[in-house]
Amino acid sequence: MTSSEESLALVERLAALRHFPTNETLNEFHSVVTKLRDMPPDSRLLPQLYRTFSDAEDYGVFWTLLHYIETYPFEDQLAALTPLTPELASRDMQHWLPTIYVRIVNNPETLQLLKKTFQDSDESTQHVIQQILESLYDNVQDEDVKKTLQARIETVLSSSDV
Hints:
The chain has about 160 residues and is mostly helical.
């Protein structure tokens, strides 16, 4: 089995484990992410990795998955995430999708890449991303944090180049 085939098999196993009915499967999920981390990254797996997130259970192991995804180049992360966002928004990712986007918005490098991929996206994808981004500051209590977040989101949504 090639490294690429082995990585794909591991990602498929993650998808099967995503609802974690037992502590054993939770531990296996973490073990599979660790195995992936030890293999050469394959950006072709990113769409499947994003599809693995689930709000069905609130396990910290998804943070392990997110941190693994964040080891990929930013360009690859956004190239996979942006066109996939409408699909992900219709799944059980109401917690994780905004979490992923707020982490992107809070990083100056990924913020600029998000602006470009947003501008290059089709109108329906832009609409879904805009809804997600605008929802990010709905529950922010601190006014200074809210203003900073709002400015960053406006950067992405503005049509002019930065």
